[in-house]
């Protein structure tokens, strides 16, 4: 449902962030983008609704009625409401490659 769609969109955004290079933000190894079955190592426990981002649509809709500025809509979502506390770090040693960078950072040509 909605949670699956959000996960798919989230993965797509980060998988594409490095442009045409082989440096993927979600990767397997050095130059292969991660697929769904590779994400299991990135969560403590199982992947389910309780481990996905939990952004309440009502907050976004309420902010959008007041302003169409993206930064204002996004600022209405608190980090604590995202349910991200169980996502493990992508340090290259624990099998989680949600964030993979090189010296240029997460985005191609950028810096972190």
Automatic annotation (TrEMBL):
| Name of the protein in its database record | ESAG6 type 1
Q: Which organism is it from?
A: Trypanosoma brucei
């Amino acid at each position: 449902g909605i949670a699956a769609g959000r996960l798919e969109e989230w993965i797509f955004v980060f998988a594409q962030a490095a442009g045409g290079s082989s440096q993927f933000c979600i990767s397997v190894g050095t130059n292969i983008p991660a697929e769904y079955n590779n994400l299991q190592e990135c969560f403590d426990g199982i992947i389910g609704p309780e481990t996905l981002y939990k952004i309440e649509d009502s907050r976004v809709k309420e902010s959008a009625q007041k302003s169409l500025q993206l930064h204002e809509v996004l600022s209405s979502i608190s980090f604590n409401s995202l349910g991200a506390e169980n996502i493990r770090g992508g340090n290259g040693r624990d099998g989680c490659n949600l964030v993979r960078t090189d010296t240029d950072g997460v985005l191609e040509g950028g810096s972190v």
